[in-house]
Design brief:
alpha/beta, Rossmann fold, 9 helices, Phosphatase_SCO2771
Length: about 270
């Protein structure tokens, strides 16, 4: 078991987020961000991440305004290329909001489902949170077996639902794996989760189906921020969701555990 490290304070965490480019001047370029905002506004469902946005976000500039407010990207529509940003203060604010949801859920002994479409970056974040929630008395849900979606298998690895294709844990934005889990639970007469902690289409699909959901999202994935703005998702945390070394997320996870009152329960 790793030696527990102290949870950073707010200022220390902000410095770490900027230094590791989880926030601040992130790697995702401005033109990529704007391209995704435009495609979402034009109705490309790949960028809706399982949410039903209707005709409410058909103006790219409206999407940009929400992303500037909730994620901290540059709010100037004339800035079309080069560097873009995530405001680390907004990241920590969202972590605090997520911690409040986790703390309430832990206090009520909820059924919680963890899932990620970014296993290369965020798997250990979800795994550690799952350990903390189980130790606090929550049921970390087991998904039904034999599920398929998007030409792969929906499996659970270290308490976290993921998509496996070709013996590889798959990076996916698709809502189909989460839909497969929720549909199977309903077919089997099992209760749905009280809370989903996820990202990408896993979080969007859960929120759209009426399950309380919190998620992590990059600055080129605007849908979950729109979902939070509309109240479909409880919290969306802005961050670069795949930095150079997944261990860079450890201080953020420690901060979140501490803020949620789960520190020490997860083994971290």
């Amino acid at each position: 078991m790793p030696i527990p490290s102290p949870a950073p304070g707010r200022a220390e965490l902000i410095d770490h987020l900027v230094r590791t480019r989880i926030a601040g001047n992130v790697a995702t370029p401005r033109d990529n961000n704007l391209s995704h905002y435009r495609k979402l506004a034009n109705g490309d469902r790949h960028y809706w991440l399982g949410l039903e946005l209707g005709d409410r976000w058909t103006d790219e500039q409206d999407v940009l305004a929400v992303m500037a407010e909730r994620c901290g990207v540059v709010d100037d529509p004339g800035h079309r290329a080069g560097q873009d940003t995530i405001d680390p203060g907004l990241t920590v604010d969202a972590l605090d909001r997520m911690a409040a949801v986790l703390r309430k859920s832990a206090g009520e002994g909820h059924r919680v489902l963890f899932a990620t479409g970014h296993p290369g970056g965020l798997l250990d974040v979800h795994r550690t949170l799952a350990a903390g929630m189980r130790a606090a008395g929550c049921e970390v849900m087991e998904i039904p077996g034999g599920l398929r979606a998007d030409e792969g298998f929906v499996v659970q690895f270290a308490d976290v639902a993921v998509l496996e294709r070709g013996a590889t844990l798959w990076h996916t934005h698709s809502p189909a794996p989460m839909a497969a889990i929720l549909d199977a639970l309903e077919r089997e007469g099992r209760p749905l989760p009280d809370l989903v902690v996820a990202d990408h289409g896993w979080a969007g699909c859960a929120g759209q189906r009426g399950v309380e959901a919190v998620g992590f999202a990059d600055c080129n994935d605007p849908a979950l921020f729109l979902g939070e703005a509309e109240g479909t998702l409880a919290v969306t945390v802005p961050l670069d969701d795949h930095v150079l070394d997944p261990r860079f997320y450890d201080p953020m996870t420690a901060y979140l555990l501490d803020a949620a009152g789960l520190r020490g329960l997860s083994g971290h």
